[in-house]
Amino acid sequence: MMVKEVAELAGISVRTLHHYDEIGLLHPSQTTEAGYRIYTDEDLAKLQQILYFRELGFPLKQIRQIVSSTDFDRMEAMELHHKLLLEKRIRLERMIETLEKTMKHEKGEINMSNQEKFAGFDFSSNPYEQEARERWGDQAVDESNAKLGSLSKSEQTKLEEEMNAIYRKLAALRQLSPESDEAQEAIGEWYRFLNRLGSYSLEAFKGLGQMYVDDERFTRNIDKFGEGLAVFMRDAMAEYADRRN
């Protein structure tokens, strides 16, 4: 299907599809000799997954990370979507009920307590994102943070110094190819360091490297050791994982 046909089918704009292509979220599998994008049935299936995640409030960067993961299972994702959308429906039904009661209250037909006026509202967190994080997200990062929090102040300081030393070593190598022996030896040291704090599979290690670039908070902190270090580490971590898979 051509891009305009896909946009009409999915109820989104052509500009949105172009944006998904530009950020690497959804590339059309084929192009014509004239350069027109052609979407296959497989592309449409992936688009459906993307739109479900969007409906549940996920940011595009996280959707890209999830659907591009090598262990992403479409059926498992659909089962999760089904569960979360049912939960969302229940929440919306409660909010609709609250709204209807509020309208009657405003007309003087019933009395509502202040607590009843806010039944169904909960903006404290995104429960859908939390469940997906547990399946595809950065649970290894959370485990590491929890372990760090259990250490004494002196132990934390020692680990921080060791971590910064690895960052400085990698920063000094960032002009080399991420595939070089020097870069791979240093990034291997980073992998072993992280696994002292948590449990990082090679795939999780690769995903963490991508997060260094996708999440500006990581990029900003890592690049304090040298401009472009986050990108260098991402590429070196991906190479390290790919060589061992």
TrEMBL record:
CDD domains: HTH_TipAL-Mta. Keywords: Activator, Coiled coil, DNA-binding, Transcription, Transcription regulation. One of its GO terms (molecular function) is DNA-binding transcription factor activity. Residues 1-69 form the HTH merR-type domain. The keyword Transcription applies. The keyword Transcription applies. It comes from the Bacteria. Residues 82-116 form a coiled coil. This is MerR family transcriptional regulator. It comes from Paenibacillus albilobatus.
